[in-house]
Amino acid sequence: MELFERWESEIRGYSRAYPTVFTKASNARQFDEQGRSYIDFFAGAGVLNFGHNNPRMKEALIRFIEADGVAHSLDMATDVKREFIRAFVDTIIKPRNWDYRLQFMGPTGTNAVEAALKLARRVTGRSHVIAFSQGFHGMTLGSLACTANQYFRNAAGVPLNHVSHVPFETPNGCGMGCLNTLRETLENSSSGVDAPAAFIVEPLQAEGGVNIASREWLLQLQQLARDTGALLIFDDIQAGCGRTGQYFSFDGMGLDPDIICLAKGIGGYGTPLAMNLVKPEHDAHWQPGEHTGTFRGQGFSFVAGREALRYFEDDALMRQTRERGESVHARLKALAETYTAAGFEARGKGMMQALDVVEGTRAKAIARECFERGLLVGPCGVGGRVVKLIPPLTIPDDDLEQGLRLLEDAVHHVMEAEDA
């Protein structure tokens, strides 16, 4: 690690949490240069929903490279982009009876959020956006203004304007009460609060601590957006693309957002891709080339992403994801009940599960102990108090079981050390 410590920026983060040099990876395992194997319950922060070096995607990518496929094309039309769009529309859009335009704006989730905010302000002629406590939307300035985490916000160096934050539903929120108060405020002509251009929300907050909004709360938020003439933006960047046992984290709730932001898992293989689903009447406000980006036509991601969509042509993987999610949740719930006195709590949906261990230092200690035992997990939430589990959806049963045992052992070890 000496070369990284000498030459790489102080900004590096994950290499500090996992202080080893990785050399190869397959599905839910990574291997370091000492030959040690680690079970990956982190999956690139949700990028690798289909595992490291997914063989179906690798084969498709090799064929693409050998055929001299167009790897980079700005936003020109290519055959692999056409195949991705066709597959996404046929597999995801049409079965839901939706009508959205697909906007490719750049490589990462923060680019998707920036484009959504810009369009919402263009459509409404307003500047103010309402975001929610614990929300995470990216690190560029517009997205960072919507992000609630003070540690990230403090690094901006400039005021993060035109966004206000109100309480999310859960946890430590105030449920429907705060949403009702927000409605009363926006409907009060003497409140001094202007109607917003948009509400931006993660239906399932990932980095915020795996906080799940209810159908009732989201429907009420959607109605508030309609009544105030604001756009409703759903950030499903980490919780989407099958992570919860359905393609979108909010599937089946009767919701109709104006813009849906996707990234991370949509590229399939780990190559970057971000995409917004935009209602046609809003998309019509764009002028050609008005919002641009160098990496909108990334051929590798379209090839791998098209293979990823094959997993959604039937319900086999999603059914398995839901079943496994229930099993993992039961294990975490049992672990939480062991430490009820410490305030532990288990929560999650599908294969995004979490153990809230109340204290950030405790979560970091658990993550370090997991690493020493050969398991990769990442803390999140307020003060880093939540241990989040987001293994590949394709993880073998044996690796899933072994990883859960390693986590349980690590938690017991840390808690016993506290009591000693």
Automatic annotation (TrEMBL):
Pfam families reported in the protein's UniProt record: Aminotran_3 (PF00202)
Keyword Transferase: yes
GO MF terms, alphabetically ordered: transaminase activity
InterPro entries assigned to the protein according to its UniProt record, in alphabetical order: Aminotrans_3, Aminotrans_3_PPA_site, Dat, PyrdxlP-dep_Trfase, PyrdxlP-dep_Trfase_major, PyrdxlP-dep_Trfase_small
NCBIfam families: dat, PRK09264.1
Taxonomic superkingdom: Bacteria
The family this protein is said to belong to: Belongs to the class-III pyridoxal-phosphate-dependent aminotransferase family.
Organism, scientific name: Marinobacterium sediminicola
Protein name: Diaminobutyrate aminotransferase apoenzyme
High-level lineage: Bacteria, Pseudomonadati, Pseudomonadota, Gammaproteobacteria, Oceanospirillales
Keyword field: Aminotransferase, Pyridoxal phosphate, Transferase
Cofactor(s) needed for function: pyridoxal 5'-phosphate
